[in-house]
Amino acid sequence: MNRRLWWKLCGLLAVGTLALFWLISLLGATTEQQMSFIARHHQETLRAWGETAERLYNSGNEQALAKWLEALQARENTWAAVVRSRLEPLAGSRLQEDFMDRFRLGRDVEWKIHLYFVENPTMEITFADGVTHFLVTLPQRMRPGTYLPEVRLVLKVVLPLTVLLIFCLVIYRHVMNPIRQLETATRQFSEGHLGARVRSLLGGRNDELASLADTFDRMAERIGDLILSQRRLIADLSHELRTPLTRIDMAISCVEEGINTQHFIPRLRRECDLMQSLVEDTLTLAWLENEQPALDAEALDLTDLVDSIVSDARYEYPDHQLSLEAPDTALIQNTSQRALAQAIENVIRNACNYTPAGGIIRVVLAADNGAYRLTVADQGPGVPPEQTELIFKPFFRACRDRENAPAGHGLGLALARRQLEAIGGRIRARNRPGGGLEMELWLPEARL
Fold first, then answer.
1. Residues 440 and 375: beta-carbon distance below 8 Å
2. Which of 166, 218, 399, 426 has the highest local Cβ count within 10 Å?
3. Structural contact between residues 365 and 331, judged by C-beta atoms closer than 8 angstroms
4. DSSP-derived secondary structure letter, 86
5. pLDDT greater than 50 at residue 204
6. Strand partners, 117
7. Which class for 131: exposed (0-12), middle (13-18), buried (19 or more C-beta within 10 A)?
8. Residues 6+ apart with CB under 8 A from 307
């Protein structure tokens, strides 16, 4: 497991946390900076007060100036005064010009106000003569940062919660979207839509959830194939059973009517044997396809096994010529004698069935790169090239419509392929240049 989702979530949380702290710091500094200056209309008010004080001062009417200052202090609940400053250097010292330009008794209305000081600062408006000043303690209503506690609450509580909720939503959607798609596909599959898949809906995603989607798709494909295979087997088995059952029904009717009873009893026996063989082969095929069993692993001499099967075929088909070419010994391990014997027997029996009387079936066993290759060549009619794979499908018979087609129900080669696959082998068919069909079986795990 590559833990891509783990690293994605860790990276997202790390980046999100850094972004959150950076955003809080930036917004806090920016907001405090913006809130540290007196509002523009309050600055204009302070300047207007300074102009009024200067006008009254220049008029020489100190009584009017004093009355105005008293009214201003009472109205704004603050302190205000007009003062004169004249700096006189002592002991031969000299004042620099830039110091005189910067010298103030109070703060300029455009200067930054410290929000964390309890006392309100003294503001100054310098008159035109440069030595007379209007001083006023900043009224409380003009003090900036009135909503600083609320802003700090927003920055320290509301903003982090909002950002965390957004991150949680992103993570939730990143995790839940494929899970929802998996849930939808599972529901569709359970409702009979066997083509429901998930991986293609996730695009280029490559993490644990994508692996889960791949696993689901493989499972869905496997189960879908099994269901379709079972449906085909049931349909084909029903079709194949219909004919012998009809014959049995007709024979029983004739027996009940007393028509040539001795003739129909052997016919009933043949039809029953055919049905029993058909059902057993179908159940074996279904078991191999659906269960994919792990067969018994054992060692055997392949030469002895093939020789025994060929000997049985010679006895069963006395009008055929079977030749066998094999090494003295061919030890093979980690295989199932039962499955291998049934597969080889089905292939040889199929070759004998399709080879006319007097024909030759050639069986060759040879070593092949640490394994063994068994070739069975007959002199039958062969199959059309496009049917060399179809003959391994259950109930498929290439010569179904030909006259004198051999009896059978089309399960022999299908069983042979499934049995070989169960032990790790494989089989293929091809037409021989001179006529006939050649079966090639590759048998793994050989020990020479």
1. yes
2. 399
3. no
4. -
5. yes
6. none
7. exposed
8. 324, 326
φ, ψ for residue 317 (rounded to 5)?
Answer: -120, 75
CA distance 228 to 129: 104
Interval 345-368 mean pLDDT: 90
Provide CB contacts within 8 A for 275, sequence distance 6+: 241, 244, 245
Report the percent of the chain where pLDDT is more than 70.
Answer: 83
Tokens standing for 303? Answer: 């030469």
The one-letter amino acid code at 418 reads: R
344 and 306 in contact (C-beta within 8 Å)? yes
- What does the pLDDT average to over 29-41? 83
Q: Identify residue 447 by its one-letter amino acid code.
A: R
- Most confident listed range (17-26, 72-81, 379-388, 409-418): 72-81
Which domains are present in the chain? Answer: 40-86+94-142 (3.30.450.170), 195-292 (no CATH), 298-443 (3.30.565.10)
Would you put residue 227 in left (φ > 0), alpha (ψ -120 to 50) or beta? alpha
Cβ neighbourhood burial of 192 (10 Å; 0-12, 13-18, 19+): exposed
Quote the tokens at residue 233: 């087997």
| Tokens read off for 193 | 């839509």
Convert the pLDDT of each residue in 242-292 to its tens digit.
667 777 777 777 766 666 666 666 767 776 766 766 676 666 666 666 555
- Ramachandran assignment for 86, one of left (phi > 0), alpha (psi -120 to 50 degrees), beta (any other): beta
Alpha carbons 326 and 323: distance in angstroms, whole number = 10
> Do 323 and 310 form a contact (C-beta atoms < 8 A)?
no
Question: At CA 131, angle to CA 127 and CA 135, rounded to 5?
Answer: 60
> Could you identify the residue written with the tokens 């205000």?
80
Are the CB atoms for 121 and 113 separated by under 8 Å?
A: yes
pLDDT digits (tens, 9 = 90+) for 37-93: 888 999 999 999 999 999 999 998 889 999 999 999 999 999 999 998 877 788 878
Instruction: State how far the Cα of 224 lies from the Cα of 196, in Å rounded to an integer.
Output: 10
Give the position of tokens 């009933």: 268
* Spatial distance between the Cα atoms of 426 and 440, rounded to a whole number of angstroms: 8
Note the pLDDT of residue 51: 93
Cα 269 from Cα 288, distance rounded (Å): 28
**What residue has token string 């000043």?**
133
For residues 442 and 371, what is the distance between their CA atoms, to the nearest angstrom? 7
